[in-house]
Design a protein that fits this description.
Helix content is about 75%, strand content about 0%. By secondary structure, it is mainly α. It has one domain: Orthogonal Bundle (ABC transporter involved in vitamin B12 uptake, BtuC). It comes from Microbacterium oryzae.
Length: about 325
Protein backbone atom coordinates (compact mmCIF):
# COMPACT_ATOMS: atom_id res chain seq x y z
CA UNK A 1 0.00 0.00 0.00
CA UNK A 2 2.82 2.40 0.85
CA UNK A 3 4.51 1.66 -2.48
CA UNK A 4 1.20 2.12 -4.27
CA UNK A 5 0.57 5.51 -2.69
CA UNK A 6 4.12 6.57 -3.55
CA UNK A 7 3.61 5.42 -7.15
CA UNK A 8 0.41 7.48 -7.40
CA UNK A 9 2.23 10.57 -6.12
CA UNK A 10 5.06 9.99 -8.62
CA UNK A 11 2.59 9.47 -11.49
CA UNK A 12 0.83 12.71 -10.57
CA UNK A 13 4.15 14.58 -10.53
CA UNK A 14 5.13 13.11 -13.91
CA UNK A 15 1.73 14.07 -15.35
CA UNK A 16 2.20 17.66 -14.21
CA UNK A 17 5.81 17.86 -15.40
CA UNK A 18 5.70 16.39 -18.90
CA UNK A 19 3.72 17.20 -22.02
CA UNK A 20 4.18 19.45 -25.02
CA UNK A 21 6.25 21.60 -22.65
CA UNK A 22 8.44 20.08 -19.92
CA UNK A 23 8.47 22.07 -16.68
CA UNK A 24 10.86 22.15 -13.74
CA UNK A 25 10.09 21.19 -10.12
CA UNK A 26 10.14 24.89 -9.20
CA UNK A 27 7.53 25.66 -11.86
CA UNK A 28 5.40 22.76 -10.58
CA UNK A 29 5.58 24.25 -7.07
CA UNK A 30 4.70 27.73 -8.39
CA UNK A 31 1.77 26.39 -10.41
CA UNK A 32 0.38 24.36 -7.52
CA UNK A 33 0.78 27.28 -5.12
CA UNK A 34 -1.03 29.67 -7.45
CA UNK A 35 -3.81 27.13 -8.02
CA UNK A 36 -4.28 26.54 -4.30
CA UNK A 37 -4.59 30.30 -3.72
CA UNK A 38 -7.01 30.74 -6.64
CA UNK A 39 -4.55 32.86 -8.59
CA UNK A 40 -3.26 32.74 -12.16
CA UNK A 41 0.42 31.93 -12.41
CA UNK A 42 2.70 34.47 -14.06
CA UNK A 43 5.29 32.15 -15.65
CA UNK A 44 4.55 30.04 -18.71
CA UNK A 45 5.71 26.81 -17.05
CA UNK A 46 3.55 27.41 -14.00
CA UNK A 47 0.56 28.20 -16.23
CA UNK A 48 1.10 24.89 -18.02
CA UNK A 49 1.06 23.13 -14.65
CA UNK A 50 -2.22 24.81 -13.73
CA UNK A 51 -3.78 23.65 -16.99
CA UNK A 52 -2.62 20.07 -16.36
CA UNK A 53 -4.05 19.80 -12.85
CA UNK A 54 -7.67 18.98 -13.87
CA UNK A 55 -6.65 16.28 -16.36
CA UNK A 56 -4.21 14.79 -13.86
CA UNK A 57 -6.91 14.57 -11.21
CA UNK A 58 -9.35 13.07 -13.71
CA UNK A 59 -6.76 10.54 -14.93
CA UNK A 60 -6.06 9.39 -11.38
CA UNK A 61 -9.75 9.16 -10.45
CA UNK A 62 -10.83 7.51 -13.71
CA UNK A 63 -8.00 4.97 -13.65
CA UNK A 64 -8.76 4.04 -10.04
CA UNK A 65 -12.48 3.68 -10.78
CA UNK A 66 -11.97 1.54 -13.89
CA UNK A 67 -9.50 -0.81 -12.19
CA UNK A 68 -11.79 -1.11 -9.16
CA UNK A 69 -14.73 -1.81 -11.46
CA UNK A 70 -12.79 -4.54 -13.26
CA UNK A 71 -11.74 -6.17 -9.99
CA UNK A 72 -15.35 -6.16 -8.77
CA UNK A 73 -16.66 -7.71 -11.98
CA UNK A 74 -13.99 -10.41 -11.92
CA UNK A 75 -14.89 -11.22 -8.32
CA UNK A 76 -18.66 -11.20 -8.83
CA UNK A 77 -18.57 -13.37 -11.95
CA UNK A 78 -15.51 -15.42 -10.92
CA UNK A 79 -14.31 -14.77 -14.44
CA UNK A 80 -10.63 -13.83 -14.93
CA UNK A 81 -11.32 -11.96 -18.19
CA UNK A 82 -14.29 -9.95 -16.95
CA UNK A 83 -14.03 -6.19 -17.23
CA UNK A 84 -16.39 -3.35 -18.24
CA UNK A 85 -15.34 -3.59 -21.89
CA UNK A 86 -15.67 -7.34 -22.32
CA UNK A 87 -19.00 -7.54 -20.47
CA UNK A 88 -20.55 -4.85 -22.67
CA UNK A 89 -20.94 -2.23 -19.94
CA UNK A 90 -18.79 0.36 -21.74
CA UNK A 91 -20.67 0.00 -25.01
CA UNK A 92 -24.04 0.13 -23.25
CA UNK A 93 -23.11 3.48 -21.77
CA UNK A 94 -21.69 4.63 -25.11
CA UNK A 95 -24.86 3.72 -27.03
CA UNK A 96 -27.12 5.69 -24.72
CA UNK A 97 -24.80 8.71 -24.86
CA UNK A 98 -24.71 8.52 -28.65
CA UNK A 99 -28.49 8.35 -28.85
CA UNK A 100 -28.72 11.32 -26.51
CA UNK A 101 -26.33 13.35 -28.69
CA UNK A 102 -28.01 12.35 -31.96
CA UNK A 103 -31.69 12.49 -31.01
CA UNK A 104 -31.96 14.62 -27.86
CA UNK A 105 -29.13 17.12 -28.32
CA UNK A 106 -27.72 16.54 -24.83
CA UNK A 107 -24.74 18.60 -23.72
CA UNK A 108 -24.67 18.90 -19.91
CA UNK A 109 -22.64 16.63 -17.60
CA UNK A 110 -25.81 15.56 -15.76
CA UNK A 111 -27.37 14.38 -19.02
CA UNK A 112 -24.26 12.47 -20.06
CA UNK A 113 -24.04 10.85 -16.64
CA UNK A 114 -27.71 9.88 -16.48
CA UNK A 115 -27.70 8.28 -19.91
CA UNK A 116 -24.38 6.52 -19.30
CA UNK A 117 -25.69 5.04 -16.05
CA UNK A 118 -28.90 3.86 -17.69
CA UNK A 119 -27.08 2.30 -20.64
CA UNK A 120 -24.43 0.60 -18.52
CA UNK A 121 -27.03 -0.83 -16.13
CA UNK A 122 -29.26 -2.21 -18.86
CA UNK A 123 -26.30 -3.70 -20.72
CA UNK A 124 -25.03 -5.41 -17.54
CA UNK A 125 -28.47 -6.81 -16.75
CA UNK A 126 -28.91 -8.06 -20.32
CA UNK A 127 -25.53 -9.80 -20.33
CA UNK A 128 -26.24 -11.44 -16.99
CA UNK A 129 -29.68 -12.66 -18.10
CA UNK A 130 -28.37 -14.01 -21.40
CA UNK A 131 -25.37 -15.61 -19.69
CA UNK A 132 -27.65 -17.30 -17.14
CA UNK A 133 -29.84 -19.04 -19.68
CA UNK A 134 -29.39 -22.80 -19.98
CA UNK A 135 -27.82 -25.48 -17.85
CA UNK A 136 -25.30 -24.43 -15.24
CA UNK A 137 -26.52 -20.85 -14.88
CA UNK A 138 -24.16 -17.92 -15.30
CA UNK A 139 -20.81 -19.64 -15.82
CA UNK A 140 -17.71 -17.53 -16.52
CA UNK A 141 -17.47 -18.70 -20.13
CA UNK A 142 -21.15 -18.01 -20.85
CA UNK A 143 -20.90 -14.53 -19.33
CA UNK A 144 -17.79 -13.72 -21.37
CA UNK A 145 -19.43 -14.92 -24.60
CA UNK A 146 -22.65 -13.06 -23.86
CA UNK A 147 -20.68 -9.91 -23.05
CA UNK A 148 -18.57 -10.11 -26.20
CA UNK A 149 -21.63 -10.65 -28.39
CA UNK A 150 -23.54 -7.83 -26.70
CA UNK A 151 -20.59 -5.46 -27.01
CA UNK A 152 -20.28 -6.22 -30.74
CA UNK A 153 -24.01 -5.69 -31.29
CA UNK A 154 -24.03 -2.41 -29.36
CA UNK A 155 -20.97 -1.21 -31.26
CA UNK A 156 -22.83 -1.84 -34.53
CA UNK A 157 -25.81 0.14 -33.24
CA UNK A 158 -23.53 3.02 -32.30
CA UNK A 159 -22.15 3.07 -35.86
CA UNK A 160 -25.65 2.87 -37.33
CA UNK A 161 -26.76 5.89 -35.31
CA UNK A 162 -23.67 7.97 -36.09
CA UNK A 163 -23.00 7.33 -39.78
CA UNK A 164 -25.95 9.35 -41.17
CA UNK A 165 -25.34 12.19 -38.70
CA UNK A 166 -22.12 14.08 -39.36
CA UNK A 167 -22.54 16.59 -36.53
CA UNK A 168 -23.13 13.87 -33.95
CA UNK A 169 -20.19 11.88 -35.28
CA UNK A 170 -17.83 14.85 -34.98
CA UNK A 171 -18.91 15.39 -31.38
CA UNK A 172 -18.69 11.72 -30.49
CA UNK A 173 -15.55 10.53 -32.26
CA UNK A 174 -13.08 12.08 -29.81
CA UNK A 175 -15.12 10.93 -26.82
CA UNK A 176 -15.33 7.38 -28.23
CA UNK A 177 -11.55 6.86 -28.15
CA UNK A 178 -11.41 7.57 -24.45
CA UNK A 179 -9.23 10.23 -22.86
CA UNK A 180 -8.98 12.85 -20.14
CA UNK A 181 -8.10 15.86 -22.27
CA UNK A 182 -11.51 17.44 -21.77
CA UNK A 183 -11.30 17.46 -17.98
CA UNK A 184 -12.94 20.34 -16.15
CA UNK A 185 -13.89 20.84 -12.52
CA UNK A 186 -17.64 21.23 -13.11
CA UNK A 187 -17.91 17.86 -14.84
CA UNK A 188 -15.78 16.12 -12.23
CA UNK A 189 -17.90 17.63 -9.46
CA UNK A 190 -20.93 15.89 -10.93
CA UNK A 191 -19.41 12.40 -10.94
CA UNK A 192 -17.25 12.67 -7.79
CA UNK A 193 -20.04 11.77 -5.33
CA UNK A 194 -20.97 8.70 -7.39
CA UNK A 195 -17.36 7.54 -7.62
CA UNK A 196 -16.79 8.03 -3.90
CA UNK A 197 -20.03 6.27 -2.92
CA UNK A 198 -19.48 3.34 -5.26
CA UNK A 199 -15.88 2.92 -4.09
CA UNK A 200 -17.03 2.86 -0.46
CA UNK A 201 -19.62 0.18 -1.26
CA UNK A 202 -16.95 -1.83 -3.09
CA UNK A 203 -14.58 -1.80 -0.12
CA UNK A 204 -17.39 -2.76 2.27
CA UNK A 205 -18.19 -5.76 0.03
CA UNK A 206 -14.63 -7.10 0.16
CA UNK A 207 -15.14 -9.67 2.97
CA UNK A 208 -18.28 -11.01 1.29
CA UNK A 209 -16.48 -11.29 -2.04
CA UNK A 210 -13.77 -13.37 -0.35
CA UNK A 211 -16.48 -15.77 0.79
CA UNK A 212 -18.06 -15.85 -2.69
CA UNK A 213 -14.73 -17.02 -4.13
CA UNK A 214 -15.20 -20.24 -2.15
CA UNK A 215 -18.56 -20.94 -3.81
CA UNK A 216 -22.11 -19.87 -3.05
CA UNK A 217 -22.84 -22.82 -0.76
CA UNK A 218 -19.77 -22.19 1.38
CA UNK A 219 -20.52 -18.45 1.46
CA UNK A 220 -24.05 -19.13 2.72
CA UNK A 221 -22.61 -21.44 5.37
CA UNK A 222 -20.33 -18.62 6.49
CA UNK A 223 -23.32 -16.33 6.96
CA UNK A 224 -22.89 -14.24 3.81
CA UNK A 225 -26.01 -13.03 2.05
CA UNK A 226 -24.90 -14.09 -1.41
CA UNK A 227 -27.55 -12.32 -3.46
CA UNK A 228 -27.21 -9.02 -1.65
CA UNK A 229 -23.41 -9.06 -1.71
CA UNK A 230 -23.31 -9.86 -5.41
CA UNK A 231 -25.94 -7.22 -6.20
CA UNK A 232 -24.19 -4.46 -4.25
CA UNK A 233 -20.77 -5.29 -5.69
CA UNK A 234 -22.09 -5.51 -9.26
CA UNK A 235 -23.97 -2.23 -8.88
CA UNK A 236 -20.85 -0.51 -7.56
CA UNK A 237 -18.85 -1.83 -10.52
CA UNK A 238 -21.42 -0.61 -13.04
CA UNK A 239 -21.68 2.83 -11.43
CA UNK A 240 -17.89 3.26 -11.37
CA UNK A 241 -17.62 2.32 -15.04
CA UNK A 242 -20.60 4.40 -16.16
CA UNK A 243 -19.47 7.53 -14.32
CA UNK A 244 -16.00 7.35 -15.89
CA UNK A 245 -17.43 6.60 -19.33
CA UNK A 246 -19.68 9.66 -19.09
CA UNK A 247 -16.77 12.06 -18.55
CA UNK A 248 -13.82 10.35 -20.26
CA UNK A 249 -15.28 7.96 -22.82
CA UNK A 250 -14.97 4.16 -22.94
CA UNK A 251 -11.33 3.63 -21.90
CA UNK A 252 -10.43 -0.02 -22.38
CA UNK A 253 -7.99 -2.46 -20.79
CA UNK A 254 -7.49 -0.76 -17.41
CA UNK A 255 -10.14 -2.86 -15.66
CA UNK A 256 -8.85 -6.07 -17.25
CA UNK A 257 -5.10 -5.72 -16.80
CA UNK A 258 -4.59 -3.99 -13.46
CA UNK A 259 -6.38 -6.53 -11.20
CA UNK A 260 -4.34 -9.35 -12.76
CA UNK A 261 -1.06 -7.57 -12.09
CA UNK A 262 -2.11 -6.69 -8.55
CA UNK A 263 -3.29 -10.26 -7.88
CA UNK A 264 0.19 -11.54 -8.73
CA UNK A 265 1.64 -9.18 -6.11
CA UNK A 266 -0.93 -9.25 -3.32
CA UNK A 267 -2.81 -12.51 -3.72
CA UNK A 268 -6.58 -13.01 -4.04
CA UNK A 269 -7.70 -11.36 -0.77
CA UNK A 270 -10.24 -8.73 -1.88
CA UNK A 271 -9.52 -6.56 1.17
CA UNK A 272 -6.10 -5.85 -0.36
CA UNK A 273 -6.87 -6.48 -4.02
CA UNK A 274 -9.54 -3.76 -4.32
CA UNK A 275 -7.59 -0.80 -2.86
CA UNK A 276 -4.36 -1.86 -4.56
CA UNK A 277 -6.19 -2.18 -7.89
CA UNK A 278 -7.50 1.35 -7.45
CA UNK A 279 -3.97 2.64 -6.86
CA UNK A 280 -2.62 0.66 -9.81
CA UNK A 281 -5.34 1.90 -12.14
CA UNK A 282 -4.66 5.50 -11.13
CA UNK A 283 -0.97 5.07 -11.92
CA UNK A 284 -1.61 3.33 -15.25
CA UNK A 285 -4.02 5.90 -16.67
CA UNK A 286 -2.02 8.92 -15.46
CA UNK A 287 1.15 7.53 -17.02
CA UNK A 288 -0.71 6.56 -20.22
CA UNK A 289 -2.08 10.10 -20.54
CA UNK A 290 1.40 11.54 -20.02
CA UNK A 291 2.91 9.23 -22.64
CA UNK A 292 0.18 10.23 -25.09
CA UNK A 293 0.96 13.91 -24.60
CA UNK A 294 4.70 13.40 -25.00
CA UNK A 295 4.69 11.21 -28.12
CA UNK A 296 1.89 13.19 -29.78
CA UNK A 297 3.52 16.64 -29.42
CA UNK A 298 2.32 19.21 -30.47
CA UNK A 299 -1.01 17.36 -30.30
CA UNK A 300 -1.67 14.28 -28.20
CA UNK A 301 -2.52 10.59 -28.44
CA UNK A 302 -5.61 9.79 -26.39
CA UNK A 303 -5.03 7.78 -23.22
CA UNK A 304 -7.44 5.05 -24.37
CA UNK A 305 -5.14 4.26 -27.29
CA UNK A 306 -2.05 4.13 -25.09
CA UNK A 307 -3.64 1.83 -22.49
CA UNK A 308 -4.61 -0.64 -25.19
CA UNK A 309 -1.16 -0.50 -26.79
CA UNK A 310 0.63 -0.96 -23.46
CA UNK A 311 -1.86 -3.35 -21.90
CA UNK A 312 -2.05 -5.95 -24.67
CA UNK A 313 1.53 -7.27 -24.44
CA UNK A 314 1.45 -7.15 -20.63
CA UNK A 315 -1.69 -9.28 -20.56
CA UNK A 316 -0.12 -11.73 -23.02
CA UNK A 317 2.86 -12.15 -20.67
CA UNK A 318 0.55 -12.70 -17.71
CA UNK A 319 -1.48 -15.25 -19.65
CA UNK A 320 1.67 -17.17 -20.58
CA UNK A 321 2.93 -17.32 -16.99
CA UNK A 322 -0.35 -17.82 -15.15
CA UNK A 323 -3.11 -20.39 -15.50
CA UNK A 324 -6.17 -18.43 -16.60
CA UNK A 325 -8.86 -20.17 -14.66
CA UNK A 326 -12.10 -19.23 -12.97
CA UNK A 327 -11.49 -17.22 -9.80
Amino acid sequence: MAAGVAAVALAAAVSLAFGSRTVTPAEIADGLSAWLHGEVASQIGAIAVQQRIPRTVLALAAGAALALSGALMQAVTRNPIADPGILGVNMGAALFVVCGIAFLGISSPFQYLGLALAGATLAALFVYVVGSIGAGGSTPIKLALAGAATSAALSSLVSAVLLPRVAAMNEFRFWQVGGVGGADWSTMAVVAPLLAGAALVAFLCAPGLNALALGDDVAVGLGVRVGRTRAFAATAGVVLCAAVTAVAGPIAFVGLMVPHVVRLLSGPDQRWLLPLSALGGAVLLAVADTIGRVIGTPGEVEAGIVTAFVGAPVLVVIARRTRMRAL
